[in-house]
Amino acid sequence: MIAPSILSADFARLADELAAIHGADWVHVDVMDAHFVPNLTLGLPVVESLLKVTDIPMDCHLMISDPDRWAVGYAEAGAHNVTVHAEAAADPVRIARDLRAAGAKAGLSIKPGTPLEPWVEVLKEFDTLLVMSVEPGFGGQGFIAEVLDKVRTVRGLVDTGHLNLLVEIDGGINAATVERAAEAGVDCFVAGSAVYGADDPAKAVAALRAQASAANHRFTA
Ligand code: DX5
Ligand code: ZN
Fold first, then answer.
1. This prediction's pTM
2. Is 170 an annotated catalytic residue?
3. Which of 74, 111, 139, 205 lies 20 to 30 Å from 33 when distance is taken between CA atoms?
């Protein structure tokens, strides 16, 4: 699955930018609060408007403090998957249950320096794990390959039935890195600058998907 991140899109033309990624599996929407991360993007009112102009399932990545208070609103608005940060959540299990009760999938994200092991039990309540492969806050940063160890570990936990979730990766995914991530066991690839920096964003989505599939035949089996 490919999830273009609209962080790299033209914010004055978001409806057109959504139309430009037809064929994408999810659209990734980065919510930043200038508190959990040193950048500010958009919030629930913009998400509500975007939901009205696209059928692409929305993947909301909340880089915010106090997701315990704010996350469920995105699920109630109609987001397909709502991801909160493990480093910010006071009660992630409660958040996951609230998100699912509101009809969304529940995602947990870990920053590059956050270990996986302490979160494995909690992840039994979640539908997606978003492994950050850059420090959250900005698009266009370089891929941190060390996080692939966490991807391989969680892939093993899923394949042996200990967890039942999608493994998602976010940050620095492009033609040069997508294959390594696919080989490590990623299911869903977020890509911002690699998609919206391309002349034809929809073509870039298809090309990334083809590269990922070729690198890991789990996708075509
Ligand atoms: C960064 C965001 C990412 C960002 C990725 O904090 O979470 O979703 O858009 O951008 P690229 O793909 O350019 O690294
Ligand atoms: Zn993101």
1. 0.98
2. yes
3. 205
